[in-house]
Amino acid sequence: MSSTSTTPTPASSHRYDIYGLGNALVDKEFLVHDEFLQARGIAKGSMTLIDEPRLVSLLAELRSEFGLKGRASGGSAANTLVTASYFGSRAFYSCRVGADEAGEFYLADLSAAGVATNPRRDADNAAPGMTGRCLVLVTDDAERTMNTFLGITSDLSHEEIDFDALAASRLLYIEGYLVTSPTGRAAAVRAKAFARERGIEVAYTLSDSSMLQFFGEGVAQILGDDGVDLLFCNEGEALQWSGQASIAAAANALKQVARRFCITLGARGALIFDGENFLEIAPHAVTPVDSNGAGDVFAGAFLHAYAAGMGCQRAGDLASLASARCVMQFGPRLPAHAHGEIRAQVLGVA
User: Fold this and answer.
1) What does pTM read for this prediction?
2) Residue from 212, 210, 228, 217 nearest 21 by CA
3) Most buried among 2, 219, 230, 346, using CB within 10 Å?
């Protein structure tokens, strides 16, 4: 794949730095033990789609046995855009929520983080539906396991795309989990084509190994023949997508579909391809508490610096520290005040 596109630079004509398209899920977070997962046949460390009856029964058990630890407006891309917004980027998120309390909470939480979004259609001219939920189960080893009820976000379509906002953005960021929904996948393809026509760079995250395992054809459809300008994945996803045995071989294979990419390596940092060279991003030694959201925060910090024209090395350094700080606390996002401290430490600006 050619590397003709360049790192975005600030431009006054852009109303938004990052336009995101993804699922809207209210995360409900619980601290659990391995025995709970094993007894209920829950695959540890991955995302599993569940239906509403399963959601209701699991939620009742979790509340009774462990108690709710926290709640946040989630979804992978939402976490990423909130992170970018807290670092100083102007972000817009297209999503779909229901006309219920969870939907009201979700939109208010996004707004509080400075992320603009499209108006909810469901209150006026769409069939009522339940806002999506994600049960985030964190074990003692800090591994996160997700059971997700998509609810009305499974009906996200091109109608949720604000094409005026997208046209006024520097970057389009597409969440990999959209591949599970036919309408969501079609919306991703349409948004990408729209961005391509206008010279807007396209970033994509593989999101989870299960997306490659069960929806590989859909992932290939979104990537298309022209690939993406920037790809995010972790080590397991890179190996699974490429079919290679080593991360070096997988990284070389990723050049077929991405002009630039970031492979997060957990405690070993990250490997970034900037279009010409491979960059090794140093890790930060921390004691992990909760790995949920670490990859999303990495992407958000990277996109903030990348969209501002800071280059892949500085973007990677910022992302590495931000994600390390994320795993030190419970929940998928850092508190607002932490972003200024991290930005000052890595970039030298408050």
Assistant:
1) 0.91
2) 228
3) 230
The candidate with the shortest Cα–Cα distance to 207, out of 243, 236, 166, 248, is 236
- As to burial, measured by CB atoms within 10 angstroms (0-12 exposed, 13-18 middle, 19+ buried), residue 94 is buried
Phi/psi for 112 (5° steps) reads: -65, -30
Span 272-305, pLDDT tens digits: 999 999 999 999 999 999 888 899 999 999 999 9
- 217 DSSP assignment: H
What residues does each domain of the chain span? Answer: 16-23+75-127+154-347
Architecture of domain 16-23+75-127+154-347: 3-Layer(aba) Sandwich (3.40)
Q: In 108-208, at which residue ranges do the beta strands (DSSP E only) sit?
A: 115-117, 132-138, 144-149, 169-174, 201-205
Are 47 and 213 in contact, with CB atoms under 8 Å apart? no
**Rg for the chain (alpha carbons), in Å?**
19
Lowest mean pLDDT among 187-191, 208-212, 299-303, 304-308: 208-212
